[in-house]
Design goal:
Elements lengths: L3 E2 L2 E2 H17 L6 H21 L8 H15 L5 H14 L1 H15 L3 H32 L4 H12 L4 H16 L3 H32 L22 H4 L4 H25 L3 H14 L5 H30 L2 H6 L3 H21 L7 H10 L4 H11 L6 H27 L1
Antiparallel strand pairs: 1-2
Helix pairs in contact: 2-3, 2-4, 2-13, 3-13, 3-17, 4-13, 5-11, 5-12, 5-13, 6-7, 6-15, 6-16, 7-9, 7-15, 8-9, 8-18, 9-15, 9-16, 9-17, 11-12, 11-13, 15-16, 16-17, 16-18, 17-18
């Protein structure tokens, strides 16, 4: 029982495999929380374990990559039983579990930060993020044009989707807007946009994992999850206050608080059409700056963050791979011209963050990883990128890059497309 695959003891793992084999054989795999916890744990930690066992690539985030893309391929090639696919898909799409994860990670990581680090990081991150967006737009468009894709198609169908903030917040609004402007069916345009979003996210995952490997070799380039070069606080190695273990009631209260902040954001989105995760993020920042939560509750929130980071990340990635990552769309983007253009765009945005960071007295690798999230697949991409980079504590800054950065890119792109179309 002391030997584990991920967090699952091997005897339990074997029993669960037998249980789900039996359920699949009779075609009855429920879509409830009991099945989801165990089924996704088996899938996620198995894929991650495979990634961790392969030399070289295990150092560049293979666990996160395998946990996301192996299940997508298994679905496409019909190697997963249909009852299991149906159970996971229904659970993932209707449980809203991704946002429970993001709420717990954001609120816990913000309340676990040092106040000075938080303020300085939020103020400074917009500079490398903005510059990276401009440089990536120019470089990506030029590369695609030189390769013969065409300036218009390169910019609006490759470069902009990469930095649009994912599928729900980026690709879908873009395709709807493009449809109204161009008079082309929205579904047709969405199919053209989606591969760039997914392959851009995959590139960001690989490069972020590589930067994590570089940071191990050259520790002076990274804060291991801290953005500020002049700070000696470390979120991942908490100070003495965080080392005091909160009681279980406090941990439970912190979990309810995180969900409450997200629901405030949901209400705000219904009223003002402003992204719920960003509203939640800003409220959490205000609470930290004004001591809105007691030190005990902050410690509880930090423990919730650590639990989700350790135990939930890979099961969640497996669910995303099965339900939200179409393998055929990813493969469709694998043309040489598209690949080169996408890689050039993602490398540009990350390299800009890397080289601008020292001038702002920030850690180059960590800033580059936050910039990478701007080219990720929304919230799912943020999770995969930060997992590959082993820097989940950067989630608040990643959400700024994804949500705010993506919203700005989508808005400007639709304005430009409207004027060119007119």
């Amino acid at each position: 029982m002391n030997y584990k695959i991920g967090i699952i003891p091997i005897p339990i793992y074997v029993v669960l495999i037998g249980i789900f084999a039996g359920m699949s054989a009779i075609g009855r795999v429920p879509s409830d929380i009991m099945v989801a916890i165990t089924l996704l744990s088996i899938g996620g930690f198995t894929c991650a374990e495979i990634g961790y066992r392969i030399p070289i690539i295990r150092s560049i985030g293979a666990g996160a990559i395998f946990a996301t893309f192996i299940p997508s391929a298994l679905v496409y090639y019909h190697l997963l039983p249909q009852p299991i696919i149906k159970s996971i898909t229904e659970w993932t799409k209707f449980s809203n579990f991704l946002y429970l994860f993001i709420a717990s990670i954001i609120v816990g990581s913000i309340l676990g930060m040092d106040r000075k680090v938080l303020v300085a990081g939020f103020l400074k991150i917009f500079i490398p993020l903005g510059l990276g967006t401009i440089v990536a737009a120019i470089v990506g468009t030029v590369v695609g044009t030189l390769l013969g894709i065409g300036t218009y198609k390169t910019f609006f169908f490759i470069v902009v989707p990469i930095m649009a903030g994912g599928v729900g917040e980026g690709a879908i609004p873009l395709s709807v807007g493009y449809s109204a402007i161009m008079g082309v069916p929205q579904g047709t345009l969405f199919a053209q946009i989606l591969p760039s979003v997914m392959l851009g996210s995959l590139t960001a995952i690989l490069l972020s994992g590589t930067l994590n490997f570089v940071g191990k070799r050259r520790p002076h380039l990274t804060g291991e999850g801290r953005l500020q070069e002049d700070s000696h606080e470390d979120v991942e190695h908490p100070d003495a206050a965080h080392q005091l273990q909160p009681d279980l009631k406090t941990v439970g209260a912190a979990a309810v608080m995180a969900v409450t902040l997200y629901l405030v954001g949901v209400l705000g989105q219904q009223l003002f059409d402003f992204p719920a995760p960003i509203t939640m993020l800003f409220i959490a920042v205000v609470m930290k700056l004004t001591d809105g939560a007691s030190p005990e509750l902050e410690r509880g929130a930090y423990r919730v963050y650590k639990f989700f980071q350790t135990c939930v990340t890979y099961p969640l990635l497996f669910a995303i791979g099965v339900a939200l990552t179409p393998w055929e769309e990813l493969i469709a983007a694998f043309t040489i011209r598209n690949l080169i253009t996408i890689i050039a765009t993602v490398v540009s945005i990350m390299a800009t963050g890397y080289f601008v960071a020292p001038r702002l007295k920030m850690f180059p690798i960590d800033v580059a990883i936050v910039n990478a999230c701007h080219s990720g697949q929304g919230g799912t991409g943020d999770v995969a990128i930060l997992t590959a980079a082993n820097r989940m504590q950067l989630m608040p800054f990643a959400q700024i890059a994804t949500r705010i950065g993506g919203a700005i890119v989508v808005t400007l792109a639709l304005i430009a497309a409207g004027r060119i179309g007119g």
